[in-house]
Write a structure and sequence with these properties.
The complex is a heterodimer of chains A (185) and B (137).
Chain A: H1 6-14, H2 18-40, H3 43-59, H4 70-88, H5 111-129, H6 133-145, H7 149-156, H8 160-184
Chain B: H1 9-16, H2 22-34, H3 36-53, H4 65-76, H5 80-136
Classes of the chains: A mainly alpha (185), B mainly alpha (137).
């Protein structure tokens, strides 16, 4: 059965149902991978850490309390992995993304429009990449994974008011970067 | 909140994201109706959101489930402490075998000694026999 909730699957896994974990991994591997690529700027590292995140999830499954917060819990694990990797790299800022993932998919558009779109997407990616780590994490969770402020706060182990501030700063930083890029062009 | 006092940036952001409590959201909405600069900020936030929404989603090339399974098996293998324990057991066996080897040497010595004694016994017996025979003669 694949219509079981995440909480049910976690409880089933703890109860000995191995297949429940396979369903959870297959359900969440793509969002976690996308989150990690946006945090790290590297598909290869993201895949590696995606795997590590799920192994950590499995190891800590016994401590999970089914309160409907699975997504936050999983993104917290993945976020910790990403931050620890960034720390290991001894950098706090992303290296600019260039060709890490394909930005050319703009079906049904004219070539010029597609080029403009592609350039704009590149600029946006670089701008997001330039944000401080926690601002980027909050922004990615909000913008690309539709977490609300409470869920982001849980995933980042912080308060809702901190998330509010992080997002405001992230959007302000993003706006400045975009304006600066456009002025250059 | 009066119409003249602008909401803080974080508040406007939260309002835009639909994260404010109903009463506070109503106050911000009422302010924005009469405040062009705040409406401009909200419009910018809309623009930023739509630009980000157009960004492609990184695609995972294949399922990582097999990797997770193998990684988990690796992790559930014997932890390094067992390697140290194996070394300690080896050393312990060495320590125990040392005296055993030594006592084996002692046994060997004992065996040699018993052989010597046997030879002596045989010599003594043959001597006694010869004395006995000479006595008979």
């Amino acid at each position: 059965m694949t219509d079981r909730t995440d909480d049910t699957l976690m409880m089933d896994y703890v109860g000995g149902d191995e297949n429940a974990m396979r369903i959870l991994v297959e359900r969440w591997e793509r969002p976690v991978f996308a989150f990690l690529v946006r945090m790290l700027g590297s598909s290869e590292e993201a895949e590696d850490l995606c795997q590590e995140s799920f192994i950590k999830l499995i190891k800590s499954a016994g401590r999970y309390r089914p309160q409907g917060k699975f997504q936050s819990w999983l993104f917290r694990i993945a976020g910790n992995q990403a931050r620890s990797r960034l720390r290991r790299r001894k950098i706090l800022r992303w290296l600019p993304l260039t060709n890490e993932y394909d930005t050319t998919k703009s079906p049904g558009r004219g070539t010029l429009d597609a080029l403009v779109d592609r350039e704009e997407q590149r600029v946006v990616q670089v701008a997001i990449a330039g944000l401080p780590e926690r601002q980027r994490q909050a922004l990615v969770l909000k913008q690309f994974h539709d977490l609300n402020y409470r869920e982001i706060a849980d995933a980042m182990d912080t308060s809702v008011s901190s998330v509010q501030m992080l997002l405001h700063r992230a959007m302000t930083g993003l706006r400045k970067s975009l304006i600066s890029e456009r002025n250059k062009a | 909140m009066t119409d003249r006092k602008h909401p803080a940036g974080e508040q406007l952001q939260a309002y835009h994201d639909g994260e404010l409590e109903h009463t506070v959201a109503s106050e911000v909405a009422s302010h924005c109706e009469s405040c062009e600069s705040c409406r401009a900020v909200l419009a910018e936030l809309d623009q930023l959101n739509s630009v980000m929404a157009s960004a492609p989603t990184p695609e995972l090339p294949h399922s990582i489930w097999p990797l997770v399974q193998s990684g988990r098996q690796r992790e559930t293998g014997l932890p390094p402490i067992f390697a140290y324990a194996a070394c300690a057991v080896g050393i312990l066996i060495g320590i125990l075998l040392g005296p055993i080897q030594f006592s084996t040497e002692e046994v060997t010595t004992d065996l040699a000694w018993s052989e010597t004694v046997t030879v002596w016994n045989q010599q003594a017996t043959s001597s006694l026999l010869s004395v006995y025979q000479s006595g008979l003669e």
